[in-house]
């Protein structure tokens, strides 16, 4: 006759210490720290990069009201529109790179980065037309001719910044997907530290021309530092150089990028 007594006993109640308030708050604190480890440097990166134009605008305000108005309209309408579109389209990499990284397909991160570059650089071409025709656009919006003409001229000087946006945002998402957020924050802080005195000197010396020169230089520096970090070996598992695969499946990538821009 079988022994009815079970050979292995399983406790019906778990350790009460695991469900205690102290344990709950300890676990919650650990989760919060993990989130802020990623989110904190990412927030700082955005603040540092956004501050580039803000600092320059502060110096331009010392030149005159006409120059300040022209800078403000270009920064808010022309550059602001381009910034939003580029950042939104670049955010498609958050999904794709996150999935590839989680699946262990690290090589695909580099392919996705290059595809995003192709898409965003292509998008920058029609956006360039907004800068080219900024003066008539501002006139249609009801701005005075002197402000519209000066803002239009300044928009032409700021065209290089648009293409730096197209390179910058994909690299940001590429690095963030790999949790390489602290180097991003340090690079952005370093550029801002250089930009403050550089912008002060250039604006004081050459006015709006100096403002455009300092901003373009700083955004080029952002791109150079990020690209240098990627190819330096810090992303050796995800970056294997340029590939023709970047030019495949571009249509679906374009639709995903546009959807990301709309959602943002």
Automatic annotation (TrEMBL):
GO MF annotation: an example: xenobiotic transmembrane transporter activity
Keyword list, A-Z: Membrane, Transmembrane, Transmembrane helix
GO CC annotations, alphabetized: membrane
InterPro entries recorded: MATE_fam (IPR002528)
Residues spanning the membrane: 34-56, 76-96, 117-141, 147-169, 181-200, 206-230, 242-263
Family to which this protein belongs: Belongs to the multi antimicrobial extrusion (MATE) (TC 2.A.66.1) family.
PANTHER family: MULTIDRUG RESISTANCE PROTEIN (PTHR11206)
Protein's recorded name: Uncharacterized protein
Species of the source: Papaver nudicaule (Iceland poppy)
